[in-house]
Amino acid sequence: TVLCFLGVIFLATEGKEEASAAENNPSRVLQGKPGERSSVLYSAGQFFFEYLVVVSLKKMSDGHYEPKITYQFPKRENLLKGQKEEEERLLQAIPLFCFPDGNNWAPVTEFTSETFSFVLTNVDGSRKIGYCRRLLPSGRGVRLPEVFCIISCLGCFGLFSKILDEVEKRRQISMAVIYPFMQGLRESPFPAPGKTVTIKSFIPESGTELIELTRPVDAHLEHVEFQALLQRLSPHLILHIFASAVLERRLIFLAEELSVLSQCIHAVAALLYPFTWAHTYIPVVPECLLDTVCCPTPFMVGIQMRHLERVLDQPMEEALIVDLCEGKILRAVGDEEEILPIKLQNEMLTSLNRHNSNNNVHTSEQVNALVSEAFVQFFVRMVGHYTSHIKWSKNASGTFQERAFCKAIASKTNRKFVKKFVKTNMFSLFIEEAEKSRIPQEGKQ
């Protein structure tokens, strides 16, 4: 039933508020986006989250520990049959992703808390993101870590990390102090890009605190941290990975820390903006799902380094395997250097090297904007002329003229790349949406 719920697991669309994105960056001419896949994620004013659950490790009769939900807020009542079944599948899947590293746990006295996220996609296409903080409860002596997991359909990693900071602070006092804070958050509307919402929260002995939660102005970058990628991989390797992702190949990332895996994979998927990775996407693969790497279709997955031997022993098809600990590629198809047109590849390399050497100077937000812009410009230059090749009928529906679109590209190397790119699922979805929504400035509807 867990696998039934998971169906296809991939990154929630880095959706955007069209108006604010255009305002902030008029050069972004690639506006199309599969509407049904992004609109639900970013509408301001909806609930911050659906559930807060605590997942604890329970000792089983064989001596192993198994993750179980020990706390859930809010408790839902009077659900319809279909809603109840969906909730049960969701609650069954969550523990797996909160403790994806298997059942080999032992009580400890010290544990560094870590933050990571996962994404679940239901069979109907609806998505939920799990924002997790794994920590050791306060106390003395040996004890087991637990995970606080916030389930939301909103993609905003920075905002939810701040919320989890508040949850962790309250956990050190008492579980009872978490409930009123989460209730206050649940009653607050999700802010629009660039806006702030203030939550009042009472803490015993500290009094009432005001917590300000602000969304970044550029909504499509609020679920990403490019610095995590730049710190672990050279610009040269990042371009090899980008080239593989653009052609929708199989990508496996290895690291031991869950936070490194989820941050770096979110960053790689975000490099594809304004296109969206629409295949299997599991930032941290639970141990029981390791055979995902045998899948013949495209995937982007993160696996803990401890499982490397098991992964390499699997009968898998060609894949790019990236070691995030050592910053190297362990296995490649071999043509990664030749996928992107060399001139544009060199321009992006120069841009990434510049940002890399300035890591100390730029803030995280600036690095995000600069890196994203380099890759957006790549797509603008390669396929930005797509609007000129949509033929509009009288009823305002469009038909994409693929042959004329490719023929219009003067450079042979650029055309060679585009002919492959137009066959990808991400380009097809993008164009499908563009065909449905006539660009206003093109004149009469």
From TrEMBL:
GO terms for molecular function: guanyl-nucleotide exchange factor activity. Residues 50-441 form the UDENN domain. Residues 1-15 form the signal peptide. Pfam families: dDENN, DENN, uDENN. One of its GO terms (cellular component) is nucleoplasm. InterPro entries: cDENN_dom (IPR001194), dDENN_dom (IPR005112), DENN_C (IPR043153), DENN_domain_containing_2 (IPR051942), Tripartite_DENN (IPR037516), uDENN_dom (IPR005113). Keywords: Guanine-nucleotide releasing factor, Signal. PANTHER family: DENN DOMAIN-CONTAINING PROTEIN 2, DENN DOMAIN-CONTAINING PROTEIN 2D. This is DEN2D protein. It comes from Oceanites oceanicus (Wilson's storm petrel). The gene is Dennd2d.
